[in-house]
Amino acid sequence: MIELFEQYGQAYLYSDGGGLSGLAMTLWLFVITMVLGFFLSLPLALARVSRNLWLRWPVEFYTFVFRGTPLYIQLLICYTGLYGLEVVRDHALLDQFFRNALNCTLLAFVLNTCAYTVEIFAGAIRNIPHGEIEAAQAYGLHGWKLSLFVVLPAALRRSLPAYSNELILMLHATSLAFTATIADILKVARDANAATFLTFQAFGTAALLYMLLSFALVGLFRLAERRWMGFLVPARG
């Protein structure tokens, strides 16, 4: 174990000598994915519950495709499949984008988590009591102001438990980044195992790091639920 940490301790945590690796790379992938996925999902969730079929149907199709296919396949398509298309290689901007493994990985992760988050937020929007909407309308809020100041805040509060599960699942899913040669925690563990043959120690260290990150997320969301969902707890007599 000491030999493993002497050789790969730094790589597990933040750098392999050539750039970010291990814990730092996993956190970077996770944060960028969740931030982009979150902000993309907000307007799409509103479109998902819209009565306008031209707004709702494209979003339904998108979430159906990305929730109906494995993330691993989506990553392979973004990493190797799309660059095999002549139209991509012939376009300078697309060619440059899809040559970068990190860009392809983030694209797959963002599209996947956004699809799940859209359905989580859309479900929360549907469960908002109609009385809250009527009260806001009585105060003169309509259209985008109603959505921005009433619907979305109420939906986000109610979706915290389900959204926390999606965050944890996405954190674990970042381990697929090694497929695109990204030096995340799992990539470092595989390299360490191949070099030292300390299989249990190499992958056990990776498992411990993922577990600590998961516990930290659970703790943060419990604090958030206590802060923003307290009004949903029945009053004690």
From TrEMBL:
CDD domains according to UniProt: TM_PBP2 (cd06261)
Keywords attached to this entry: Amino-acid transport, Cell membrane, Membrane, Transmembrane, Transmembrane helix, Transport
UniProt main location, coarse: membrane
Protein name (database record): Histidine/lysine/arginine/ornithine transport system permease protein HisM
Gene Ontology molecular functions: transmembrane transporter activity
One GO CC term on file: ATP-binding cassette (ABC) transporter complex
Annotated ranges, domain ABC transmembrane type-1: 23-221
PROSITE patterns according to UniProt: ABC_TM1
Subunit note: The HisPMQJ complex is composed of two ATP-binding proteins (HisP), two transmembrane proteins (HisM and HisQ) and a solute-binding protein (HisJ). The HisPMQ-ArgT complex is composed of two ATP-binding proteins (HisP), two transmembrane proteins (HisM and HisQ) and a solute-binding protein (ArgT).
UniProt record, GO biological process: amino acid transport
Organism domain of life: Bacteria
Upper classification of the organism: Bacteria, Pseudomonadati, Pseudomonadota, Gammaproteobacteria, Pseudomonadales
Chain ranges passing through the membrane: 27-49, 61-85, 97-118, 167-186, 198-221
Pfam families membership: BPD_transp_1
Annotated localization: Cell inner membrane; Cell membrane
Gene designation per UniProt: hisM
Source organism of this protein record: Pseudomonas tructae
Topological relation to the membrane, as annotated: Multi-pass membrane protein
Family in the record: Belongs to the binding-protein-dependent transport system permease family. HisMQ subfamily.
